[in-house]
């Protein structure tokens, strides 16, 4: 085997090895750069004045047809405070259960949460409803404790123990 | 599902609504099988001038293993991470080629190790698949917190009853079958225990503390478990003279403690305790003392007039240079001792693939660890988070301890490079480790099941209309 062939193969192998590494990094590139990092202090300050405007808009679209209502509907649930801060769950028409039970969609590691604390589900109009499942310490929307299933306005903080959850678009 | 799994590179990774990315995995897997076959051809051409006879069979064997693994992952963990399986396959395949390449050199013991290693790899993949098929949910493991502690202790204590091999009592010899290193399996089992234990005790460990000079000092009764683990790892060191495993256990526990409690003081405590332990053991045990001496003075001449193995490994790195001598053209057979194919396999990488290839291999290990940590971030339950962090932390520490030992950054310890080095237990245990990580990532990325019909919604509708 000539020296040249071996040199070409040697460098070729290194190139192929690095090509694999680069392809692998491309696959996870979205992990490194694609996720949006929201700054919590800034975002809250910005959201506060928005909220009064957002709410009537939500109500007007909620009364319309399913297609229009769904466009303004929140697409994800974000945990903004507590031990699970930063966790997001996409809202895709499924019921989301919250609590300390291991089979909950979001397992709360929180001394003030009950094992089956609350659930969040969509009604027919695509409006997201939160219902307290008889928890000991209660579920709070903004400042008020929930007693009945209540629609969640986007951006309103939903507090369970030390955990705060928001629905976002 | 097929429309779901076609994917571009632009999708954001956040929980839910994700493409399953199985086709990405398949593409990478084909790539990961082709590279070792290319390496195999490369070695044959360099050594004998012809393509090696077993190339087709070897390629088909590796391809078959990877294909079966891929199909079962598609079936049983469709939303699992797309990178873990291809990278493991690539590292395992490259390891097989390197071992086969060293088999070509007469006098490198153990002779003809590649077929055995291929068999162990197949067993490892089989265990990987068994874990994926039978472990439906990683949260089941949480039920066995204290049982896994007992199992881990038994596994660790077993080698004490067997004769030492090469100065370390880490082997269990089963007559007629071969020898196993139970420590490799204990690594996984004890991670389950740590994750289950810390999940329950994290609040006590994090909150009940006194503030002293800017540090949170834990209470005595909370300090108990960390001291017990420390004593345990020291005992492994003293009785089994296994520096690597004790470092691995203690390091992993400190990592998980830090992740569970978010207290820097635990890291500080861990470093102090491990430093104290290392000093005590290094000054009392001759076996460890020799290793430290070799590390501090690698160029010192031994009793037979030669330099230490550490120095020989450094020579081979130097001889490799930036681009290496080419596969099959190095001289790592000149490294003395019996560990050229296991502990010192990175020396062959460094000489024949050079710094460039060595970096690629280390980046691959880094990517595997990154996927593990990413899985931990995506997991939605604290037990899964801790388990994923612990498993990838253990893997990271093992890679660091071996690579650091071979490159003379830290004293050499008797551990094997995961997937790359020759050694049955290591390959099998690491395949099982990544099976658990795949299971966690599948649970984390899987979209929730379709909504069940909800009577309350119906009632709301009735009231509204």
From TrEMBL, chain A:
<dbReference type="InterPro" id="IPR008984">
    <property type="entry name" value="SMAD_FHA_dom_sf"/>
</dbReference>
<dbReference type="Pfam" id="PF00498">
    <property type="entry name" value="FHA"/>
</dbReference>
<keyword id="KW-0597">Phosphoprotein</keyword>
<feature type="region of interest" description="Disordered">
    <location>
        <begin position="39"/>
        <end position="74"/>
    </location>
</feature>
<dbReference type="InterPro" id="IPR000253">
    <property type="entry name" value="FHA_dom"/>
</dbReference>
<feature type="domain" description="FHA">
    <location>
        <begin position="96"/>
        <end position="146"/>
    </location>
</feature>
<protein>
    <submittedName>
        <fullName>FHA domain-containing protein</fullName>
    </submittedName>
</protein>
<dbReference type="InterPro" id="IPR050923">
    <property type="entry name" value="Cell_Proc_Reg/RNA_Proc"/>
</dbReference>
Automatic annotation (TrEMBL), chain B:
<feature type="transmembrane region" description="Helical">
    <location>
        <begin position="26"/>
        <end position="45"/>
    </location>
</feature>
<feature type="transmembrane region" description="Helical">
    <location>
        <begin position="243"/>
        <end position="260"/>
    </location>
</feature>
<keyword id="KW-0472">Membrane</keyword>
<feature type="transmembrane region" description="Helical">
    <location>
        <begin position="220"/>
        <end position="237"/>
    </location>
</feature>
<dbReference type="GO" id="GO:0051301">
    <property type="term" value="P:cell division"/>
</dbReference>
<feature type="transmembrane region" description="Helical">
    <location>
        <begin position="83"/>
        <end position="102"/>
    </location>
</feature>
<protein>
    <submittedName>
        <fullName>FtsW/RodA/SpoVE family cell cycle protein</fullName>
    </submittedName>
</protein>
<feature type="transmembrane region" description="Helical">
    <location>
        <begin position="51"/>
        <end position="71"/>
    </location>
</feature>
<dbReference type="InterPro" id="IPR001182">
    <property type="entry name" value="FtsW/RodA"/>
</dbReference>
<feature type="region of interest" description="Disordered">
    <location>
        <begin position="446"/>
        <end position="465"/>
    </location>
</feature>
<keyword id="KW-0812">Transmembrane</keyword>
<feature type="transmembrane region" description="Helical">
    <location>
        <begin position="114"/>
        <end position="135"/>
    </location>
</feature>
<dbReference type="GO" id="GO:0015648">
    <property type="term" value="F:lipid-linked peptidoglycan transporter activity"/>
</dbReference>
<feature type="transmembrane region" description="Helical">
    <location>
        <begin position="419"/>
        <end position="438"/>
    </location>
</feature>
<dbReference type="GO" id="GO:0005886">
    <property type="term" value="C:plasma membrane"/>
</dbReference>
<feature type="transmembrane region" description="Helical">
    <location>
        <begin position="144"/>
        <end position="162"/>
    </location>
</feature>
<feature type="transmembrane region" description="Helical">
    <location>
        <begin position="267"/>
        <end position="288"/>
    </location>
</feature>
<dbReference type="GO" id="GO:0032153">
    <property type="term" value="C:cell division site"/>
</dbReference>
<keyword id="KW-1133">Transmembrane helix</keyword>
<feature type="transmembrane region" description="Helical">
    <location>
        <begin position="182"/>
        <end position="200"/>
    </location>
</feature>
<keyword id="KW-0133">Cell shape</keyword>
<feature type="transmembrane region" description="Helical">
    <location>
        <begin position="386"/>
        <end position="413"/>
    </location>
</feature>
């Amino acid at each position: 085997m000539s020296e040249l062939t071996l040199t070409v193969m040697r460098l070729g192998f290194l190139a192929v090895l690095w090509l694999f590494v680069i392809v692998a990094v491309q696959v996870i590139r979205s992990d490194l750069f694609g996720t949006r990092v929201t700054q919590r202090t800034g975002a809250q300050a910005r959201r506060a004045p928005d909220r009064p405007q957002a709410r009537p808009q939500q109500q007007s679209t909620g009364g319309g047809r399913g297609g229009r209502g769904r466009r303004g509907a929140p697409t994800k649930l974000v945990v903004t405070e507590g031990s699970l801060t930063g966790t997001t769950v996409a809202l895709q028409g499924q019921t989301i259960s919250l609590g300390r039970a291991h089979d909950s969609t979001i397992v709360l590691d929180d001394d003030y949460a009950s094992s089956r604390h609350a659930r969040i589900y969509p009604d027919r109009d695509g409006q997201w409803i939160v219902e307290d499942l008889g928890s000991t310490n209660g579920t709070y929307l903004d400042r008020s404790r929930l007693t009945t299933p209540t629609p969640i306005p986007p951006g309103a903080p939903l507090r369970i123990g030390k955990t705060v959850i928001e629905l976002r678009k | 599902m097929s429309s779901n799994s076609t994917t571009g590179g632009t999708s954001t990774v956040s929980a839910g609504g994700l493409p399953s990315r199985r086709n990405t995995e398949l593409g990478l897997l084909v790539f990961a099988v082709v590279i070792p076959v290319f390496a195999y051809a490369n070695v044959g051409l360099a050594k004998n001038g012809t393509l090696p006879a077993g190339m087709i069979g070897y390629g088909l064997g590796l391809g078959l293993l990877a294909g079966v693994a891929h199909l079962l992952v598609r079936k049983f963990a469709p939303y699992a991470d797309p990178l873990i399986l291809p990278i493991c396959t690539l590292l395992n395949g490259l390891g097989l080629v390197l071992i086969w390449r060293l088999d070509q050199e007469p006098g490198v013991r153990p002779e003809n190790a590649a077929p055995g290693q291929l068999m162990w790899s197949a067993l490892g993949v089989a265990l990987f698949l068994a874990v994926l098929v039978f472990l439906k949910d990683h949260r089941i493991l949480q039920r066995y917190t204290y049982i896994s502690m007992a199992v881990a202790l038994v596994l660790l204590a077993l080698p004490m009853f067997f004769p030492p091999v090469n100065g370390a009592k880490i082997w269990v010899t089963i007559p007629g079958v071969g020898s196993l290193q139970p420590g490799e399996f204990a690594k996984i089992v004890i991670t389950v225990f740590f994750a289950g234990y810390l999940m329950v005790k994290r609040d006590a460990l994090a909150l009940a503390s006194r503030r002293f000079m800017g540090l949170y000092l834990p209470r005595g009764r909370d300090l108990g478990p960390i001291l017990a683990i420390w004593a345990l790892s020291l005992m492994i060191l003293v009785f089994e003279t296994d520096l690597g495993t004790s470092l691995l256990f203690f390091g992993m526990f400190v990592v998980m403690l830090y992740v569970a409690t978010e207290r820097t003081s635990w890291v500080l405590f861990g470093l102090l305790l491990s430093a104290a332990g290392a000093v005590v053991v290094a000054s009392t045990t001759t076996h460890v003392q020799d290793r430290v001496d070799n590390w501090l003075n690698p160029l010192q001449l031994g009793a037979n007039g030669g330099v230490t193995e550490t120095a020989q490994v450094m020579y081979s790195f130097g001889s490799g240079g930036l681009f290496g001598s080419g596969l099959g053209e190095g001289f790592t057979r000149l490294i003395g001792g019996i560990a050229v194919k296991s502990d010192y396999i990175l020396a062959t990488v460094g000489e024949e693939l050079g710094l460039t290839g060595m970096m690629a291999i280390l980046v691959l290990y880094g990517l595997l660890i990154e996927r593990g940590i990413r899985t931990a971030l995506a997991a939605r339950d604290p037990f899964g988070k801790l388990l994923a962090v612990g498993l990838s932390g253990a893997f990271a520490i093992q890679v660091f301890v071996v690579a650091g030992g071979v490159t003379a950054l830290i004293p050499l310890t008797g551990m094997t490079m995961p997937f790359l080095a020759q050694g049955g237990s290591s390959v099998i245990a690491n395949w099982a480790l990544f099976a658990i990580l795949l299971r966690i990532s599948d649970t984390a990325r899987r979209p929730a099941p379709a909504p069940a019909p909800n009577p309350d919604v119906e009632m709301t509708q009735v009231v509204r209309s």
